[in-house]
Amino acid sequence: MALIDNLIGATGKWVANSDSNATLASPLAWLRKTGGYSAVNRIIGMSIPFATRNRFSVEELRPGYVKAKIRLKGNKNHFGSLYAGAYFLVAEIPGGVLTLFDLGPSYTPILKEMTLQFLQPANSDVTVEFSLPPETVEEILTDADNTGRAKFSLEGQLHDQEGNHVATSIAHYRVRKQGFKPTD
């Protein structure tokens, strides 16, 4: 676990110091950004191989924000639209990504409950975006540092490639601080 924790910490710093708006007009900044996202996706694949097999990817990551995508290819249901499990995958993993990269590897995210409301079938790749305001991150850190754990929730709107709102997710997480020992 120490190797993964070190990779998460180093990658988090790398991504946080990248310009998320970098384009090929600035090739070194673009390489730094895309290389950072590639590293994030490799870490996810090492930790959760199921995510990589199902074509999940983080598309954008910066402090307090993550955008993720699940591809339709390989995730179709019997109607040819996105399989329900793929919706859950793309809606659940970003909460852990935000936690690990905003709080650090000493804080372990655990999904406690998640609901998904399907609004219409997705016949293309689907993306979701989540954000945690700095005040919420501070509250999570304070609670976890004082009690060994903290709760937070994320609500996301899942969109197809045409921008249609295809589903809404609500996920409730608990974060545990590794090695926490209550003070007497």
TrEMBL record:
Pfam assignment, any one: DUF4442
Organism of derivation: Marinobacter albus
The protein's name: YiiD C-terminal domain-containing protein
